[in-house]
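explain this:
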Amino acid sequence: MENTKEFLKAALDEAKAGLAEGGIPIGSVLVHRGKIIGRGHNKRVQQGSVVLHGEMDALENAGRQPASVYRDCTLYTTLSPCSMCSGTILLYGIPRVVIGENKTFMGEEELLRSRGVDVIVADDKACYELMQEFIQNNPELWNEDIGV
């Protein structure tokens, strides 16, 4: 069994890297057979991107993979995935998603579950506290990121 704590920490490290760059602190790693093959963080601010959420950046950084690899991966993300990221998870057949926290934002977890994805919410205190501090200091940026 994969070391959930280790990989969630890697996702959190990505989130902190994004924050240090002036971005939104959401990070993600894509794990295949116990090895991180892609890591990323939200780069919407840094790159002026409309699509580079943490999950999308991790997938992009994993590079092009055969379908058989995606179907044998776990995606770790610090925050519940939005509809765009969840659609990508479904599109590539990623079977497991481990979420740091979903109190700050509840993404499309039910959609993922309804399509057979194993969704695990770690309820990680560090992930939650990082987002709460960010939102308190940057409410406009957070609202932009979630489309409010």
Q: What stands out?
A: Helices lie at 4-20, 44-47, 54-62, 67-70, 83-91, 109-114, 125-137, 139-145. Residues 4-20 form the longest helix (17 residues). The first strand starts at residue 27 and ends at 32. DSSP finds eight helices and five strands in the chain.
